[in-house]
Amino acid sequence: MWNRSMLLLLTLLASTAAQARCPTLSDLSWEMTPTGSSYEASFRLTVYGEVFWGFNGTVDGSTISLDAWFTH
């Protein structure tokens, strides 16, 4: 179902859409930290110093578990 490649593609599409809507994009951060057999994932899209869209979660094989999902 979901894997790291699909999650990265989703992130790239979201960031492209956000840049198209808001050309004053100030920061885009993406992190995947290995934790044994899974990865801790974090994505933040910041506009004018405020988080516009993002998530925290875990990627384990084909499973993505979102711990937090937020929008502005």
Compact description:
Strands 1-2-3-4 form a four-stranded antiparallel beta sheet, with helices on one face. The chain has one helix and four strands.
Our count of helices gives 1
Mean pLDDT: 71
Series of H and E elements: HEEEE
What percentage of residues falls in helices of 4 or more residues? 25-40%
> Could you say which overall geometry the principal axes of the C-alpha atoms support?
globular
What is the oligomeric state here? single chain
**Secondary-structure-derived class:** alpha+beta
Query: What's the N-to-C terminus distance?
Result: 28 Å
Range of strand content? over 45%
Mind describing the biggest β-sheet?
4 strands, antiparallel
Number of strands: 4
Total individual domains: 1
Rg over C-alpha atoms, rounded to the nearest angstrom: 13 Å
How would you describe what is shown here?
There is one protein chain. This protein is α+β, with helices and mostly antiparallel strands and 72 residues long. The chain has one domain (4-71). 25% of the residues lie in helices and 57% in strands. The protein has a 4-stranded antiparallel sheet, covered by helices on one side. β1 (25-35) and β2 form a beta hairpin. The radius of gyration is 13 Å and the shape is globular. The N and C termini lie far apart (28 Å). Residues 1-20 form the signal peptide. Keywords: Signal.
